[in-house]
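Case study B.
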Amino acid sequence: MGLISFLKSKFSKKKNDEIVNKYNDGMAKSRQNFSSKLTNLAGRYKKVNSSYFEELEEILIESDIGISLAIQIIEDVLQTSEKEHIYDPNEINEILVDKMFLGYASKGDTATDIDFSDNEMKVLLVVGVNGVGKTTTIAKLAHRYIKMGKKVMLVAADTFRAGAKEQLCVWGERLGIDVVYGPSESDPASVAYDGMKKAKQENVDLVIVDTAGRLQTKANLMAELSKIKRVIGKEVPNAPQETFLVIDATTGQNGVIQAKAFSEVTSITGVVITKMDGTSKGGIILAIRDELGIPVRFIGLGEKMDDLAEFDLDKYLYGLCVVE
Ligand SMILES: Nc1nc2c(ncn2[C@@H]2O[C@H](COP(=O)(O)OP(=O)(O)OP(=O)(O)O)[C@@H](O)[C@H]2O)c(=O)[nH]1
Ligand SMILES: [Mg+2]
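Model:
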């Protein structure tokens, strides 16, 4: 059984599953774009040939899957087609989704959630360029872990943008949790230091540190991240255990460039892709995974507090490829 059939049988029974529906709603634009192109292509050919594969490759590239992964996937599909004598376009499209699955899954670790099993305080540092959705994602993550019964604290280490700490404080109030902040334009590392001190005193389970949006091309701002990290590590052993890079799905291949630049200056343990609901090119997740191997941990599927889901490859591919 191909993956599409498997996903259909896995998820069609789950019409009332909140998370499956969230993926499906949030990925509607991408699905509309990607699967309608596949259906249209399959409808125009009785039997696949080299121009079919060229068009198929074009569809992958247009979906932001990335050129090198698109080429690799098409080569894999071609090989299977020849080896197993499969030339029916619909069957080829099924094989395509299998290969997309492998394109992600074969790149290593797929761990998603933060591991609280050792009962040590966890520190999560959130980084990314301006306006990608860092602060909103922090609020969504805090909401998620509060619901799981964790004690969460926020630290406003974005001392740069006017209104940044106020924005985080508004979220803190809504969530009913403490936010540690310092004076405007103070050193973000010193706010991080105060945050760690307070978090230890208060015995929190998870501290989430918000940072200023920084362009990957600004060396001094990128160096500042290392300083924030060092200070956190001095106060809390092994921290930050997690550093999430937030990437806006609507920025396309630029997201891959950002991911490369950030991972060169600091170790990233996970990527959060936001605004999946705002793009019709949902393939960006596969491109980032292909280029960097870093697992996508969460995806943002809307602006509300609940519009965040743990990344799940099956649900993602179902949301992207399957029309029922
Ligand atoms: N549609 C949609 N909008 C989102 C999502 N995540 C964030 N946003 C919106 O993106 C905008 C920017 O979000 P912020 O959280 O302020 O972004 P930021 O990265 O903290 O921005 P800076 O601190 O200025 O660098 C806001 O209008 C959010 O509501 C998402 O998953 N979907
Ligand atoms: Mg922010």
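Residues 128, 130-136, 158, 161, 164, 213, 274-275, 277-278, 300-303, 307 surround guanosine-5'-triphosphate (ligand 1) (CB under 6 Å). The remaining cases will be described in the next quarterly update.
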